[in-house]
Amino acid sequence: MKITSYEQLNKLVAQSLSWQTGVELVDQGEFQAEVEFYYPADLEEDRRERWFDEFGIAPDFATELWNVEAFLLPECDRNRLVTQITITPTMVSCGIKPLVADERSTGMAVTGEKGIPKSIALAVCLAWLRFKGFNFELELPAEERL
Question: Which has the closest alpha carbon to 7: 32, 27, 37, 30?
Answer without folding.
Answer: 37
